[in-house]
Structures are given as structure tokens and as C-alpha cells.
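Sample intake sheet
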Amino acid sequence: MSNIQHSWLLLANVAGAFGARFVNLFTAFLTVPLAVAGLGTHDYGIFAVILSAATFVTYADFGMGLAMVNPITVSEARGDAAETRRLISETWGLLHLIAALIFGVGAVLVAANAWHGGRSLAELAPWLVFVVGVAIGLPAAIAQRVLFALQRSYEANLWMAAARVASLGCVYLAYQLGAGLWLYVFAMLCVPAVVGWVNAFWLFRVSRPDLAPHGGASLTTAARLIPEGLRYTVLQIGPYVETGFDIVLIGALIGTSMTTSYDLLTRAFNYVPALATIGVLPLWPSIAAARTRGAVAWARRVEIIATVLLCGGAAVAVTGIALYHREIVHLWTGQTIAFETPLIALIACSAALSSVAALLGSILVGHQKTRSVFLVQVVVVVALTLAKVGVIVPFGILAVAAANVIALLAKTTWFLALLGAETASRRRDV
């Protein structure tokens, strides 16, 4: 493929990422009222807990799905299909082992609850469906990661959107039938898992049969991928810990009177880095593949263009939200909020810096600097959390927002220094 074709492929991947996000938001917008109306307040609360638990359990793959992205991207760029297949096969085997362990532990816990807790089958059925859905969905998720590594994330996003639409259809069916909680859980967890298996079948049997998994798990591969995968897991949850922890601190140490207003305000701003993260994610495998095939100049141009577009877009977005935050929140929720201008400015700066940090982090991962990015993330999260705990009581919410800005500015500067050091090293080598 030429550089122009790679550029169009990258644009398709970015567009697909935003399209899938839109489908996700749209289906969630329709699913919630259907579930509330069909289940009632009590059962919907259990439904929400189960979905939250499912989100947590998805990290049980130890990040191996993400850890194999760079190795696959590099082996594909070199034309080494045998190495790609070996990586997929061994990871696939490990994911099956983890899924079997999850199912076994989950089934035992459900059975113990039935035996000792005196729960009825109707009460335990949703949790059993939860265990089955997570267990069967975990291995199938490898297809999404492989497509991402192959720079075909637009296809992965199409399958993801199809799973969301199928889930919504099943939720609507459950609502129409007046079904119990178990069918709603089946709709949200088992239906996407089935779509995932169809995706895996299509990828490995139709689209790329040369990559079809074979053989079993490898302890050697596990020893290599799990530490790397744990680093990717930290990179995934780190940005949420940086600012998402604020509401917990405010509620626990100041009081709940401010939490609703502050949460609504920060949610409005946090959509900017959330969308930025979605947009920059496809850069990572594209840059890694380009550098492997020697197209360093093309990768550099992509990085510069992405930086200019993201910085400009983030600046416009956070400025607009800062100027019209009252109107936006009121139109969105019907709530009226009032905060001082310095706090608004600090939160806007945090959102912009978080967006830039997401871009720089994705570029560095594409440069095979995952360990460095992981180190930065750990240091920032630990230092920031300690700082916020120390300043929130004596100095209030404004100090928390200021700590976020200082930490994100330090993180962004550190990322820039890493990129600068790499560029200087490359020039010396030349």
C-alpha cells in the first residue's frame, strides 16, 4: 500500500471510531428508558450493578488483547503471517483458560448463594446469565483487537455497532414480552458475545483464514504479554482516575451538596477528552506499522497534522463549553449550576490538557514506548491523588481543579520530553 492509501485507511478508522461512539450513545439513550420502564426501579438498580460488574470483569484478560496489538502490527508490516498467527493462537488459548476460570468461579459463587443464601432461581438467573455472558464473550473479543492491530478498526467498529443494535433489539423484545431481569442481562451481555463470535468466525474463516488460531496456550507468551497487558490496563483506567476520583473526594470530605453540580459540569467538559481519545486511538497501530516499514516521514506528518487538528478542536470545544456551560447543562439536564470563573477556567484547561496528553500517549505507544508512558501515568496518578487528598479540606474544590491542571501539564511536558529525546537520538544516529 502507498502512503496515500495508508492515509485514507487511517481516516476511515478514525471516522469508524466516531461512528461507533455515536451508535453507542444512541443505543444507550434508548436502552435506559426501556429498561427502567420494563424492570422498575428496584430491578433496574440490580441491572445497573450487573452491567458495572461486567465492565470490571472485562479487565480479567490482564490486558493481553491490547498487549498483542504492537507485536501483530510489527509482524504484519514485515509480512510475517506465521508470527502473527502464533501470537493470535497463543493469546486465544490463554483467553479461553481465563474464561473457563471465570465461569467456574462464577458458577460456584452462584451455586453457593443458592444453597446457603436461600435465593430463588428467578433471583439468581440474572447473575448466572452474567457469568455465562462474560465467559463466552472474553475469547471472542480477540477479533476486535486483531482487526485493530491490522489497521482495520473501521471493521471492528462496524461489528461493535452491530452488537449494540442487536442488544437494543433484544432489550425492546424483553420490554414487549414483559420479561424478567435475566433477559435484559442476556440482551446486554450474551447478545454482544454472540456477535463477537460471528465476527471471529468471519475474520478467521473468511477474511483472513491464514491467521486462524491453532494450538493451545503458551506460558512463555503469557509471561511476556501479561506484564505488558497490565501496563495497558493502567493506561486505560489512569485518565479516568485522574479526574473521576474528584467526585468521590468531594462527597466524602466536603459533602454531597456540591457533588451533583460539580459532576454535571465536569461531565460536560470531559466529553472533549473522551472524544479525543476515541479519535487518536487508531493512530497507534498506524504509526507503529509505518515506522516498521520505514515510512518515518509519513508517520511524522500524521503526528503533526493530528496534533494541530486536536489542539485546535479541543481549544474551540472547551472554550465554547466554558462560555455557555450554564446553558448547556440546563438544556441537557434541566439543572441550574453556578460556579466561579476561575474554577471553570481550570476545568477547561484540564479537559484540553487531557486531550493533548491522550494524543501524545498514543503517539508514544506507536513508537514502542509503552513502558515509559506507563511510568508517567503511574507517577502522575499517585502524586495527583495524594495532592488532592491533602488540599481538598483546607483549600476546597478550586485547589483540586488546580492540582489537576498542574498534574496534566506535567504529564504533557513529560510526554513531549520523551518524544524530543527520541527525535534527538534518531538524528544523532543518522
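Comment: The mean pLDDT is 85. The first helix runs from residue 3 to 57.
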